[in-house]
Please model this.
Amino acid sequence: MVRRAADTLLLRIARRTPGWLITATLAGIASGVAELLLPDTTAHAVDLAIAGHVRLTAFWPLLAVIIAVAGTNAVYQATIARLTAIGTAWLRHRLTGTLLGLRPTNPGLAPGDAVSRMTGDCALAGAAAATVAQLVLVALTSIGAIIALALLGWWLAVVFAVSLPITLLLARSHVRHTEGSLAAYRKFSGELAARLLDAATGIRTIAATGTADQETDRVLTPLPRLAKAGLDMWRAQARMAWRAALLLPGVQLAMLGAAGYGVLTGRLTAGGLLAALGYSSMGMGLIGAIALLTTLATARAAADRIVEVERLPRRPNGNNVLPNGPGALALRGVTVRADDGSPTLLDIDLTIPAGATVALVGRSGAGKSTLAAVAGGLRLPDEGSVSLDGADLATVRPADLRAAFGHAFDHPNLLGDTVADAIGTGADLDTVTAAARAAQVDDAIIRLPHGYRTPLADAPMSGGEAQRIGLARALVGDPRVLVLDDATASLDTVTEERVTNAIRTSLPGRTRLVSTHRIRVAEQADLVAWLAEGRLRALARHDELWQFAAYRAVFTEAPG
Amino acid sequence: MSAARLYLDALAGQRRAITILAVWSIVEGLPALLSGRLVALAVDNGFAVGKPSQGAFWLGVYAVVSLFGAVGARGVYGRLGEVVEPMRDALVRVVVHGVLHDDATTRHQPDAAAIARITRHIEVVRDVTAGILIQARGLAVTTVAALIGLVGTAAPLAVLVLPPIVVAVAVGIALLGSLARRQRAVIMADEQCAQLTATVYTGLRDLVASAAEAVSASRIGRVVDRQARVAVRLGNASANRELVTSFGGLVPLLLVVAFAPAMVAEGRITTGAVLGAVVYLVTNVQPALIGLGQTAGNTVLRLVVTLRRLADIAVAPTAPIVVATTIPVRVDLVMRGVTFGWGEAATPVVTDLDLELPAGEHIAIVGASGIGKSTLAGLLTGLLRPREGRVLLGDTPVDTLAPQARRRLITLIPQQSYVFGGTVRENLSLLTDAATDADLSAAVDAVGATDLLRRLGGLDGEIAHGGGALSSGERQLVALARVYASTARVIVLDEATAYLDPAAEARAEQAFARRGGTLIVIAHRLSSALRANQVLIMDGGRPILDSHDALLRRSASYAELMRAWSGAPQAISARDEPVRSHRRPAAQSER
Model:
């Protein structure tokens, strides 16, 4: 099923650029014909030359063929490159759209994997049309060459037909012989990379303890074994090269012998001997066809991997305008399932009155972040519905959803070129500064090398600072509902209190959904939604819940 | 370090292997050298004059020569590993050294993808070098050998055909510059696309939450379009280069056809020699020229671009301004007029700070997050160099101490603990070679990691790369035990117990207090302040160092912090009824 979709995708690439595809095919055919004419034309010219005919009858055809070979080949190569570039770009645009429309968290697609599909697989699949064109050319020239051989003398074609399978076998056994040492090499290379990554992650400890030299040695421990595996690989290659170096001239010599016999018996001219050599090496191009078939298979597999991404769960994408309202949230029978089908949230009914502050409380893994994401329209529930001021979030257009909700997270990912961009791309500096003040991060930003204009990459930032910039980002759009997912966890209690007060002052009357591990936050909330193992255990005030030991136990969990 | 320097240094140790490789190359080139000559002999003395046995004999000689070529090819491959592998070793060494000695990465978490790219870059250099040694070298040997053979077999023709070949090679080399620029543009565009995709995809949640999808889509779109444009340009340039090389290979043939008849007629050259010349041109020179063009165009350029990337990383480590020759006996820490900021224009984090910490002192540093506590720790341990003023350990500026000496005296545990793939023993004895198993076990018991050690399978237990399934708290316990077992006499805990529960944190801190030496705790929880003799409060104004009781009176912000904290029942419950830590398996972490 995926496979068929992948082939359809490849066909669609081919159909995107019919003009260039036709140009490539025509140039390929022309180039193939010219190449096929070359040995024969050369042979005639040489025969005339040997005979001492000082005439240019053979010169002009050869000149024409040479120009044709060089010219058509150049056009063909340029067209193939363009075809691949166009196909690859089309796939990348498409994949960008797909990736951006995905649900925010996809355990099935790691970031490195997404990148390799974007850079690697798109390029491989984008080359599919060009590969088919190349296959056609190779088939044309090598089969044409074999026919030409047969036309020169049937025995020549027979000699070639016998030697070809031997060469094919050789090409196959090559892969098998290097596999073992290649696997060892990859293993030690991976081990070294893992050690380097370990050490790079601990770079602060290494610098602080002055152990850089020692750790360099430790990272390099697998190096001798890596070098040995590498040497083994080259030795295996050497054995293969030995056989190849024996066999390939073998084919050539067999042809030479057979053609020499033809010259002797008068069935072949001296030029014909040259032509036989030329056609036999052209016929060897069939071996190249194997590599092209592998490339084509790789392109199909790459297209599979692009289609796979298109099958991942997507975000809500409605068309309706969100009506104005005070910010009343209602969750009805909300169930969210993990990839293995087990419920992360199960049948949650939760009504949050407009302007209320609701604390989401529960142990790690109870489903707080998922609930925050579903309630804020970042993802759809698998069952049930979420509505804001009466409008089902699944039907609301994305732009209105984003304007209605402000999200802040425990570990925010800050995006944009500068700190100001990270808070609000396109927002004016006054708005950005106001949001940063409310999030209690203005003081830290002005201590950065270039204040608000500091490039994000150059901003030395603690977890708490990043968290407060993330908070400022949630505040900057003046949303109807604030969803704070453990967004003050790295702040000390005083700063957290200041943030809470500042939000109350600058954005009064906003509905707030705040997931937290802290008692103080739960105490100050109008209501606490207590989650346990994906279910809503209770919705009540903090002091009413405090009598339950299981509720109290939630707050003793590390980190405090 | 320049890319060329890096590459030549890495190859420098392999001179002997390279020489042997060159000798085998000559053997490998024998068939190309003699092919046309032997065909000419077979025709002139054999097939053309009705002596098939003579013809067959010369072809037999050709077979023997081919055998030599095969032996040569085997010899080349056999030596290849001895050139390529040591070169790869040398590159790995330089680059790993560069990564681990880079000062800048101590401020930011390094980018894991970038680290992964480094190892791939090194593999590219290895593969490409091997490719050059096999292909380009082989092709060059073939071309030269065939041209020598041509001169020997049909000198009058050789004079004619050499100029166009030389011109084609020269034009090919002249085109390399523009080709290199285009190739580099393609690689840069690829990298940019990868980087942008990674940023956008990892930030998808945040990007959606801040309605930045359209902006991101058009940013990626622009990069993708540029990628396509530069790929087309590269394709056109490659086609041009192929045009030049195919003419370079084919025009000589045309010249032979045009001028050989007259020469044969005049008797200046034999029939066989003409045939031999064509064999040289068609079977050796022409394919080799095309192959050389492609190798130079793609492989060599890839090598150059990749080497430049590696050269950026393989920077020689910057030595401290002055390396102190003496190791301080006393370990009193003194700050004199220290000012530090992250940039010339930025508001300083620390201004004109004086601080005295006699050996054996136990202080806590408290203050709002982002106020500069970690910066202060960096200054105290010599990781950061003050813009003005001095930090003295005993009477030596701490940033001038040699790393090995510093490690024995002063050490810092950051919040993100360093745990690496290896045995528990290796992890614990990172800072000390002298510790016995008993010392290590004692350190583990002291910081409260006994249970953890048992679960890991004792000191011989294996920890996976990146700490494997260890939780953040468990990693911190490993880091704490490691430093406890070290000889350091000044220890800075920079939120090093943040992931432990309050009871486990108290136990670890008390263990360090009992251990002796100076203890500086950057407090994650305010309970750390109550355990210290003195507290340094940082509130954006001038930091104050005093006892807890005195600070409650002297510092309004300290009093406010304490009020907010002791009002929270969680803190009281943590002190009154210590709860056992709730360890959770990693798989159950927050989604």
User: Anything to note?
Assistant: Chain B has 20 helices and twelve strands.
